[in-house]
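Input record (one chain):
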Amino acid sequence: MRLPLLLLAAVLCFAAEDAPLRELVDQVRDLEAQIALVERSSVTAPDRALLWAGATRGLIAAADPLGAYLTAEEVAVHGLGSDPLRVGLGLDWRRVGDRVLVTRVVPNSPAAAAGIHVGCAILAVDGVQADAGVRFSEALGRGGERKKLKLRLTDGSTPELELTRAELADDGLAVVADADPGLVHLR
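The corresponding structure, as predicted from the sequence alone:
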């Protein structure tokens, strides 16, 4: 499983003057050296793919405490790919400081029909508070067809709304308005 190191080394050959890229390659080499040390020092031979997956999990956790890395096998075990891709509540959200804000509402979705709009704060989902980290993310993203959301609307009111997942006429892509001239940033 030396592919990540080899790919980065190949890129380094084409961008020899790029200092940040050299630093990245050096960091990947350090990680590779640590994995090799674990392999040599272990009583039983560890699975190299599991070592890389563990390292990747650590990197993701350090970068975003709500983020997660799952292998293809873990996705299959958890059934994460089994739901139709175009079924949902019709909203995107993001953690901003200590709040969870709606960042996008899909037109003609359950969220749009309920009057949810960009800037609303999600306080809880099915009784799970927004500050519950991964539990909150799972409550919003998975589970039953119906979700009870407690919101703080931009007018200050705090309604509780019950939404039912539905098919969405949406490809999941949104153009970010603050892209540099000549660039399109799709989310």
